[in-house]
Write a structure and sequence with these properties.
With 575 residues, the protein is α/β, with parallel strands linked by helices. The protein folds into 2 domains: 385 residues, TIM Barrel, CATH 3.20.20; 113 residues, no CATH class. Strands 1, 2, 3, 4, 5, 20, 25, 26 and 27 form a 9-stranded mixed β-sheet that branches. A 6-stranded parallel β-sheet has the order 9-10-11-12-13-19, sandwiched between helices. Strand 26 and strand 27 form a beta hairpin. The longest helix has 17 residues. The protein starts with a strand and ends in a 14-residue tail after the last strand. The model has no long low-confidence stretch (mean pLDDT 96).
Amino acid sequence: MAKYDIVIKSGMIIDGLQTPRFRSDIGIKNGKIVEIGGNISAADAAEVIDATGKIVAPGVVDLHTHYDSQIYWDPWCTMSGWHGVTSVVIGNCGFGFAPVKPKDRERAMLSLVRNEAVPLETMRAGLPWNWETFSEYLDSVDQIPKGVNVMSFVPLAPLYGYVVGIEEAKRRQATDEELARMCNLVVQGMEAGGCGISAQILGREGNVQLDYDGTPMVTDEMSERDLKAFSRAMGSTGRGVAQMTGDLQKAEIMARESGRPTIWNALLAEGALNQHGAARMTPKAALDRLKHLNEVEGVRVYAQALTTNFASQFTFEDYNLADAIPTWKDICMGTIAEKMDKFRDPERRKRLKEIHEQRGGLFGSGYVLTKIKLGWIPLDVPNGLALQEEYEGFTIGEIAERENKHPIDVLLDTSLAGELKTGYETELIETPVAAMKQIATGPVSLPGVSDGGAHTKFVTTARFPTELLSYWVRKHEIMSLEEAHWRLSALPAQAAGLKGRGYIAEDMPADVIVYDFEELGSLPAERVWDYPAGEWRLIQKAKGYERIIVNGETTFINGECTQATPGKLLRHGVA
């Protein structure tokens, strides 16, 4: 029997702890790193990886993913699994599928349809629903094959649904008894292995993360009373971390009341766009406040920073990233037939044109409408081929000038011609380098806002590890490679309470990536039909990763999946 399962030879090791890089060998056995040294014999290994000229680093920890359903049909949680991620955290933003009573399963799935844009038919086909409680959900995740390690928050929205009822909780405040029951469920969830609690608190105004019916999510207008109670419940267990999407002030409350760290979403650079809506604080104000909280008040708050340049593709079948604008939200709500009727309505068009002028030509999340390109028109509509030849590849502005039409009319008419399946592609908004450096190198900044399992028809922000390393570090040198891997692995592991992972050392789980720094990059975006029920999603694969290793087993070799599923459920942050 070989002494080592894998030996990685002659790689440049960046250990994730900001130790200066060094060239060495790594010996892996039974899922762990058992030796790091310069003379490990290849003859003692069942498999040898020649890492000469390559970087050897810890696997990436992806803290914000929404893979709660996708993991059931995609064990490797792609896109994350393609981009060097070996551990993911689910249950983000307070959204999830447990606890859920059997009669409420359909409503639970509907809650994820608009705000996180997970297709309903895909969830219906892909979720086994062999649980009711949060503990049973974790048991279910534990039992399925996994290509990455998984840890879960206890999401707060399902608690309201389980105890009060979603619609009822939107109409009134929970009673003291109901709140006490929900807090008990928090404690039970923590005892079952949850890593903390999560919530989205975005209010009503400017919220693009809405429920399927266009109303705020059940946690969006959570009272301070409830927020404090949930935070204290988590804190009573003596461990855990909170994750909160919304105003930094709410994250402060969670950290103060729980005595535990909070991960706040999201820290945005000047000039950046964000699928969650506009920034509510300037980057400098946010960074100054975070510094004061952590260094002066002793209130531990991390910031999840959006570190990818932003672009999106969309169709009006399911677009929701303009929901912050009431008239756009109205026109994008309803069935396909209802939406098409609204698209034809002259009065609504008139109002949209007024809004277009008021916003200086901006559309939805902040893109210049005339620069949006018509990416595709489906062939299965009347005159589909002719429409493709006439419109595909042209911008809204070019078509408007050619046809002497208002850009709003071009957008709505081309969408109607494709029966709302017409696809549009926005320009890439490139964040200024200095602005990205400011947020990415903040003392408590965590790169990411992956959303790998959400908004999958619109954005590909789960490429963030590759973009940080190849674009922001290699091209623009906003930080050292040592710092980048610390922020991608050890720091998020620490923030989330993921124990014993996130760096390379002897006796550590062997979550390791081997890559060619000069070749690393994201491949072009593409649509693939690989979701249950025949649904498609937008993806970007990666190049340059020679190996991705999870718990000592290789999951990807040069982008090709080995079908290995060595991932583990990390209850309480450990396997």
